[in-house]
# Entry
Amino acid sequence: MTAKAAILYYKMLYYVYHSEPFGYDDPVILHERMRTLSTELMLLFDDTDTEGNTTLACLRSFARKAFEERKFMLHPCELRMHMARGVRMGGIVTWYCEKRLELYKSMSRT
# Structure
């Protein structure tokens, strides 16, 4: 479910900024598409030389495996790490969407 939540967060952010749905369900593609909207999201999922951040690639895999493989299992430590990033992502996306909607409201008053 963490993978589906991340996909929905990105789709919501895309819709708020572009006023149209985005047709992909791949979190890696969605992340690349949102690159210019949020530096915080870029840093959250940044893959550096010292710390490999595989969350987006794992979420892509989880989204597929969770519904296709009956015996899909995930180690609790790995799940905790990805869920923490997903929760943080939710806060970032919510903040950006709220700011954008405030801008739309102020523009409609003028």
